[in-house]
Structures are given as C-alpha cells and as structure tokens.
C-alpha cells in the first residue's frame, strides 16, 4: 500500500513540459508559455506584472492547443496588462543605469590611450558626473555591465550578511544571488539565504534593510513583533526602505529584463 501511495504521489508531482507559442496582438507578436496542471479545473491566463511574460495553464496535458485558443480569446485583456508594464531600459553606451540609487552614465574607455584601467567595468571617480566606464566593443556592453552588477551585488550583500549575522550570532548555511521577480530576498527553513542582484541598483539603505530582514529570519522565521525588533536592531530605517521598494522597486526590473514581452 505504501509503495502504491508513493508511486501515485510521484505521478502527481511530475512536471509536465512547457510549450512555447506565438500570439498576435495587434501589430505585436507575443510569446506565450503553455503548461498543463492536473490540479487546474479551468484555463488560467497570467501576465507577469514585472517581466511581461504571458502564460496559460491548462487543466490537462491534452488541452495545450485549447490553452492557446483561450489566450486568443483574451487578447484584449493581455494587451491591456502589457500596456501597463514599463518599457525595458537598454543597457548600452550613453544610457544611464542605477547603482546604489544613483543614475550613472555608461561611457566607453579607450584601452589603447589609457593603460591605467581597472578592469572591464568600473566606476570612474574622476568624472565630473556619476559615470561607469566600460571597455570593449559596444555589443559586449550589456553582458559586461550585467556581470559587473551581479559581482557588485554579491560583494555588498555578502558584506552585510556577515555583519548582521555576527550581530545576531547566527550563521546562514548558504547565500545565493539570483534574478528573482517575486521576492527581493528569502530565508528558508534550512537557513539558506537568497537575494536579488538588482538590490545593488537600489539605495544602500534599501539593500541593508532587505539583508537585515532575511538575516533576522535566521533567528525568527516569522513576522511577529520579536522579528521586527531584531530588524530594527540591525537597521533603523525599515519604513523608509519599505516605502522606497513599494514606489520604485518595480523600476529596477526595467534594466536587463529577464524576458522580452513581445517582438
């Protein structure tokens, strides 16, 4: 009986493949992810409010073609949702990106004329205005800047994790930096911490707050008053940081978005 129950449970938990399809909405072509869920009782269409990713869940494996037809019927609703998503900001020379809450211009750096360089990407402290220098060909700029931002995030977040963990006498088992869209940070029951690399674009007090929030969960895996007292012990500006994330957090996903909403 136990083996049969285990087999049935495993069968229910099998992840069915996701199919990609294209949907015409006006003059745009939108990519739609079609997936089946044995627990779903009806078709469900969703538009990610941050990335603009469109997905349709079908109630069974054999109804993926029906899922696309359902999306076609919801064209107007999908178009309305996509219209509310800010356009992505292209990372290229001449553009401006946030770093620690400050807009920096992305400018090139001639390696041949300037041998005293500090790497492929760095902050130019000698420039009149906030500037990030990037070496290499223009087509390499997006990847180099993204990689640099992720390294910066890993550095700053790592420093704060160590500082706050020592203050609370706790120790995370693992710290990872990811490109999440649902949470800025998380703490698991196994004491694993995870953070969005996009926090490095926010003001320092915001990054500090998110790290303090998750480190405090290593002591209190809840949001009871004792937990908030721990957070306030680490950082005194929780409300200000929460307001900033509510008002400006979504804008951080405009830079180097995970997906393009349409072509």
The secondary-structure element order is: HEEEEHHEEEEHEEEHHH
**CA-CA gap between termini:** 52 Å
CATH topology of the largest domain: Zincin-like
CATH class of the largest domain: Alpha Beta
As a whole number of angstroms, the C-alpha radius of gyration is: 22 Å
Mind sketching the topology for me?
Layout: H1 2-12, E1 19-25, E2 28-36, E3 44-47, E4 54-58, H2 64-73, H3 75-83, E5 96-99, E6 102-108, E7 121-123, E8 131-134, H4 141-168, E9 174-178, E10 185-187, E11 192-196, H5 204-216, H6 225-234, H7 238-248
Parallel strand pairs: 2-4, 6-8, 9-11
Antiparallel strand pairs: 1-2, 3-4, 5-6, 7-8, 10-11
Helix pairs in contact: 4-5, 5-6, 5-7
Describe the protein.
The chain has 263 residues and is an alpha/beta fold. It has three domains: 82 residues, no CATH class; 43 residues, no CATH class; 111 residues, Zincin-like (2-Layer Sandwich). It is 35% helix and 21% strand. The protein is built from seven helices and eleven strands. The strands form three sheets. It has a four-stranded mixed beta sheet with strand order 1-2-4-3. A four-stranded mixed beta sheet has the order 5-6-8-7, with helices on one face. Helix 4 packs across helix 5. The chain is globular and about 55 Å long. The N and C termini lie far apart (52 Å). 25% of the residues are buried. The N terminus is likely disordered.
């Amino acid at each position: 009986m136990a083996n049969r129950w285990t087999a049935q449970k495993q069968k229910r938990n099998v992840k069915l493949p996701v199919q990609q399809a294209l949907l015409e909405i006006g003059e745009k072509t939108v990519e739609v992810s079609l997936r089946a869920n044995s627990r779903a009782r009806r078709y469900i269409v969703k538009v990610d409010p941050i990335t603009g990713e469109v997905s349709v869940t079908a109630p069974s494996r054999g109804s993926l073609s029906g899922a696309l037809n359902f999306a076609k019927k919801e064209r107007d609703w999908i178009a309305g949702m996509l219209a509310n998503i800010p356009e992505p900001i292209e990372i290229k020379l001449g553009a401006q990106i946030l770093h620690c809450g400050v807009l920096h211009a992305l400018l090139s750096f001639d390696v041949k004329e300037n041998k005293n360089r500090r790497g492929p990407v760095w902050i130019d402290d000698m420039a009149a205005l906030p500037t990030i220098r990037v070496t290499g060909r223009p087509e390499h700029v997006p990847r180099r800047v993204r990689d640099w931002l992720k390294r910066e995030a890993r550095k700053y977040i790592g420093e704060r994790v160590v500082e706050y963990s020592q203050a609370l006498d706790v120790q995370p088992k693992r710290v990872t930096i990811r490109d999440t869209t649902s949470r800025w940070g998380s703490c698991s029951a196994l004491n694993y911490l995870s953070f969005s690399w996009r926090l490095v674009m926010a003001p320092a007090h915001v990054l500090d707050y998110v790290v303090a929030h998750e480190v405090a969960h290593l002591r209190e895996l809840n949001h009871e008053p004792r937990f908030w007292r721990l957070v306030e012990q680490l950082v005194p500006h929780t409300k200000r940081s929460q307001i900033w994330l509510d008002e400006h957090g979504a804008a951080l996903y405009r830079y180097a978005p995970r997906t393009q909403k349409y072509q």
